[in-house]
Automatic annotation (TrEMBL):
Keywords: ATP-binding, Nucleotide-binding, Transport. Belongs to the ABC transporter superfamily. It holds the Pfam family ABC_tran. Residues 18-245 form the ABC transporter domain. This is ABC transporter ATP-binding protein. One of its GO terms (molecular function) is ATP hydrolysis activity. It comes from the Bacteria. InterPro entries: AAA+_ATPase (IPR003593), ABC_transporter-like_ATP-bd (IPR003439), ABC_transporter-like_CS (IPR017871), ABC_transporter_ATP-bind (IPR050166), P-loop_NTPase (IPR027417). PANTHER family: ALIPHATIC SULFONATES IMPORT ATP-BINDING PROTEIN SSUB 2, TAURINE IMPORT ATP-BINDING PROTEIN-RELATED.
Length: 265
């Protein structure tokens, strides 16, 4: 198996969704969170942003979400409709404790003025998709950490967004729950046919989930390399225990190490 690691990205074969062009983000006078970040995000991509703490992963995500603007460079949506079909999932599920599961999932529709009755079926479908059928009337306090995250993902997916941005959504979960959610996330992505940009510290998670791993380094935050995980979906448990998976994990770890320390002599 040939593993491709490159300084360029692998976007050529799909339609472009959006482009980051030479993006810098500077906080205050001298905190350079991102420097010269260019990336084409294409329809159907599962991109992981992988890198150490402080390399600007969350900043990149917030820029893509339109929550803040680049200091230099630009972000361009190909259809010109920035953020119209975009959802964000954060590390904390951020559920409303006073509302039931189904009312939590309703939130993005409710903010657009859509009545609960009108989207009840969509909400049921989203909850089914995340494996929470039957928990519609439960309250967040009655759920485990993994289930709360499932609600948060259902809330992100209920609008059937084109792009889902996920900022370390599984970092606080135990390993088994994390594996389960990784599997389920791939199924959900396939079902709603979206594009995902996923921030993680975990080499293992990035290899299992992504078809493109963007490796970043800190001080200043920048893209160092991109690794293509050339394994078709659906990916099942066998992939996790395969030699190919181990080889990809080694390649990603090595690329990450080089991003921090410079190339092997
Ligand atoms: N609002 C802000 N004001 C000032 N500095 C900020 C702000 N947001 C981020 N930074 C700084 O920008 C740099 C990149 O932060 P960012 O949170 O994007 O990194 P990260 O790779 O997501 O880190 P982590 O993995 O720890 O979440 C850090 O040095 C951080 O302290």
């Amino acid at each position: 198996m040939e593993i491709q690691v490159s300084a360029t990205d692998y976007s050529a074969s799909r339609d472009k969704l959006l482009t980051l062009h030479k993006v810098d983000k500077v906080f205050g006078r001298d905190v350079v969170a991102l420097q010269n970040m260019s990336l084409d995000i294409c329809e159907g991509d599962f991109i992981s942003l992988l890198g150490p703490s402080g390399c600007g992963k969350s900043t990149a995500l917030r820029l893509i979400a339109g929550l803040m603007q680049p200091t230099n460079g630009f972000i361009r949506w190909e259809d010109g409709r920035q953020g119209e079909s975009l959802s964000v999932v954060f590390q904390e599920p951020t559920l409303m404790p006073w509302a039931t599961v189904e009312k939590n999932v309703w939130l993005p529709m409710r903010l657009k003025g859509v009545s609960f009755a009108k989207v009840r079926d969509d909400i049921r479908e989203a909850l089914e998709l995340v494996g929470l059928a039957g928990f519609e009337h439960a309250y967040p306090r009655e759920l485990s950490g993994g289930m709360k995250m499932r609600v948060s993902i259902a809330r992100a997916m209920v609008t059937k967004p084109k792009l889902v941005l996920m900022d370390e959504p599984f970092a606080a979960l135990d390993e088994i729950t994390r594996f389960k959610l990784n599997n389920d996330l791939l199924q959900m992505k396939a079902k709603i046919d979206c594009t995902v940009v996923f921030v993680t510290h975990s080499v293992f998670e990035s290899v299992f989930l992504s078809d493109r791993i963007v490796i970043m380094a800190a001080r200043p935050g920048r893209v160092m390399q991109e690794l293509k995980v050339d394994k078709p979906y659906p990916r099942e448990e066998e992939f996790r225990t395969s030699n190919d998976y181990a080889a990809y994990c080694r390649a990603a770890s090595q690329a990450l190490k080089e991003a921090q320390e410079g190339p092997r002599q």
